[in-house]
């Protein structure tokens, strides 16, 4: 029996993965990304309290901060206590899925093969993060989307500004970008303008998806908001 998924309802088409373990000002980072058109952010599990303060500067509501990689139930609980809007696990761990459901949080499970993707769906994942997407390429997303049309897929790992649109066109609900946008050097030096510039460069190649994601209720777009997540002040 398949568990019913906690829905992700309007995920933005671009998710920024912050792999740095230390971020001096997570709110400034989220604001910089939002100014560049990226409103979904996955912080490293190691970043302390990334979402403890309101994100989403004035006029930019809607930034959603998730946490990953979640490897243990303790990490899931800690992320929830810190106000994570969604959890991201690198694989299909039933214990993490159960914890996320108990915590009432949307959760993303990592997968690559068709079997992994089926497992993620069976565990009730709100979306599946197909990683490393660069090893399979956009056409793989078309193939998987044809077989699992109701499971939002996030293309992660090796997706660049030059091919992000290809993944979205092939059926990915979102692309996840890491160091190309969230440059470790810029994070370390607090160069938020550089982060914004990189985010703008990335989203500039996706005008139709980024514009569509701002239209309410567009079918087929991910969105991660449960009643509980919406209660988070940012
Ligand atoms: O392992 C994880 O938890 C991930 O989030 C996978 C990758 O780190 C991101 O998808 C970013 O990958 P790049 O854009 O290639 O830098």
Helix content: 25-40%
In the CATH hierarchy, the third-tier topology is known as TIM Barrel
Strand order of the largest sheet: 1-2-3-4-5-6-7-8
Number of strands: 8
Overall structural domain count: 1
Q: What is the CATH domain class?
A: Alpha Beta
InterPro entries: Aldlse_KDPG_KHG, Aldolase_TIM
Family: Belongs to the KHG/KDPG aldolase family.
Protein name: 2-dehydro-3-deoxyphosphogluconate aldolase/(4S)-4-hydroxy-2-oxoglutarate aldolase
Pathway: Carbohydrate acid metabolism
Describe what this molecule looks like in 3D.
This protein is an alpha/beta fold. The protein has one domain (14-218): Aldolase class I (TIM Barrel, Alpha-Beta Barrel). 37% of the residues lie in helices and 15% in strands. The protein has 10 helices and 8 strands. Strands 1-2-3-4-5-6-7-8 form an 8-stranded parallel barrel, surrounded by 5 helices. β3 (64-68), α2 (73-81) and β4 (86-89) form a beta-alpha-beta unit. α1 (26-35) packs parallel to α8 (192-204), α2 runs parallel beside α3 and α5 packs parallel to α6 (164-170). It is globular. The relative contact order is 0.21. Mean pLDDT is 82; it is low at 50-60 and 215-234. 2-keto 3 deoxy 6 phospho gluconate binds next to β8.
């Amino acid at each position: 029996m398949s568990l019913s998924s906690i829905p992700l309802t309007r995920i933005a088409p671009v998710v920024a993965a912050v792999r740095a373990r230390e971020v001096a000002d997570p709110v400034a980072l989220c604001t910089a990304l939002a100014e560049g058109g990226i409103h979904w952010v996955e912080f490293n599990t190691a970043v302390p309290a990334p979402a403890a303060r309101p994100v989403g500067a004035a006029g930019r509501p809607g930034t959603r901060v998730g946490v990953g990689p979640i490897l243990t139930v303790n990490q899931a609980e800690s992320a929830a206590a810190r106000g994570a809007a969604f959890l991201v696990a690198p694989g299909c761990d039933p214990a993490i899925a159960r914890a996320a459901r108990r915590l009432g949080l949307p959760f993303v499970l990592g997968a690559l093969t068709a079997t992994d993707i089926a497992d993620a769906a069976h565990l009730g994942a709100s979306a599946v993060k197909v990683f490393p997407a660069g090893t399979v390429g956009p056409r793989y997303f078309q193939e998987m989307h044809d077989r699992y049309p109701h499971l939002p897929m996030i293309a992660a790992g090796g997706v660049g500004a030059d091919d992000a649109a290809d993944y979205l066109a092939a059926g990915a609900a979102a692309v996840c970008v890491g160091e190309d946008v969230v440059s470790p050097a810029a994070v370390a030096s607090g160069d938020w303008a550089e982060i914004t510039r990189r985010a703008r460069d990335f989203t500039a190649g996706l005008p139709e998806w980024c514009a569509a994601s701002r239209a309410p209720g567009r079918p087929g777009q991910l969105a991660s908001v449960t009643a509980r997540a919406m209660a988070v002040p940012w």
